[in-house]
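Ticket #4471: structure export looks truncated?
Reporter: QA, pipeline team
Priority: medium

Steps to reproduce: submit the single chain below to the structure queue and open the exported record.
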Amino acid sequence: HVQLVESGGGSVEPGGSLRLSCAASGDTVNRYALGWFRQAPGKEREGVASIGIIGTTRYADSVKGRFTISKDNAKTTLYLEMNTLKPEDTAMYYCAAALSSRWWSSLSPDDFNYWGQGTQVTVS
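Actual output as written to the record:
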């Protein structure tokens, strides 16, 4: 199965930008839908953005227009470009993968069964 390792988190002031990366290995990435999720202290894990095998994207309403998900199949890397960051974006960010059909994507954490260890994003 696929293994996932996130990087790129850090601390930034409100209005700033960060780019998260998720390196995938261990299986053919093109078999998986991929997503970014986040969890703040005391809150449930929530979907931020996802991208299907053929590139179909979904975004949480709270990040539309500010975040962009993309993937580089050749480098087997998933990205999350985050702009105009707000304090409420502060959370641990996880990438995740799910074996799926070509057209499927989801923002529900329950639909994904392979997870990275997470990278912290702090906006203050």
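Status: closed, not a bug. The export was complete when the record was re-opened. Leaving a note from the reviewer for reference: The mean pLDDT is 94.
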